[in-house]
Structures are given as C-alpha cells and as structure tokens.
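Notes, Module 5: Reading structure tokens.

Key idea: the token line is not a picture. It is a compressed description, and you learn to read it the same way you learned to read a sequence, by spotting repeated patterns. We will look at two proteins. The first is printed below with its tokens.
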Amino acid sequence: TVHSPMSDKEKNQFVTLSRREVASKIFPDYDSRKAVSALTRRIQQDPILLARLLKRGYRPRMRVFSPNIQRVLQKYIGY
C-alpha cells in the first residue's frame, strides 16, 4: 500500500489560531469580544500561567497563538 505523508495539520492537533478563535474555544458561551477580554484577564491574573506562556513566546498584545502557546492554555485552562 502507498502511504501518503501526513500533513503538518494531521501531525499536530494544534494549528496557529487567532486570539479570538482560542478565546472563543475557552469561553464558548461568551461573544468573541467578551471571550478575548476574559482570556486576557485570566492570563494577567495567573502569574504561573503568564510565566509559562512567556517562555513559549507569548506577548500580551499578540493576535495569533502558536501551537505551543495553545498547549499551555489547554493545560492550565482547558478547552
């Protein structure tokens, strides 16, 4: 049988997503603006989470989250 190579998307369950997309996954009951505000507040109020994110390249005003940043958010907040 011929084995097709896996795409990067298939290898990695995470792909780069916007802050709004990630926030909406974490806070599905909020509208997107409120979800972004809630996520930003949560990150600012949790020094351990913030430190872990900063190690992975997080910056407070970034608009897109890399897979590494999403993994940290998923571990600490869940979605």
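Here is the second protein, with the sequence above and the tokens below, as before.
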Amino acid sequence: RVDCLTDDYAIEFDWAKKWAESIGQSLYYAKMTGKKPAVALIIKSDAEKRYVERINKVDKGIMVFVIKARDFKK
C-alpha cells in the first residue's frame, strides 16, 4: 500500500536508517501506479543526511524529500 500518492509521485515514508528498504518500496509503488518514485526520509540528526546521498548513488531518478524529526523528549 502506497504511503502517499500525489499527482506526480508514489512516496514511501521511512526512517533514514531504513533507506535501502525505502528504495525498493518506492520503485515498486511507482511501477504499480504509473507515478514517479519518491522517498520521504525522516531524519533524527544532520548525520543521517548521508542516507540521502546513498539513495542518489543507487538511483538519481528517485525524488528524495527530507523530513527532520522533532525531539519530543522533555
């Protein structure tokens, strides 16, 4: 089931550390819907931005949206 389907994209939302799984999901969703593949990576720290680069190295055709997770520990 697609996490988010827009006019242009089939988007997989996942935590940054699951970047590799998100690639497969987004490509599958795109194939099944006829939309372009996209991943929304939820990052907890700036260090996790490296996962965006990993996705781009695998397939530059996957749109990557970065979502910064909020720290709710208070």
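Summary for the second protein:
- The mean pLDDT is 95.
- The first strand starts at residue 4 and ends at 5.
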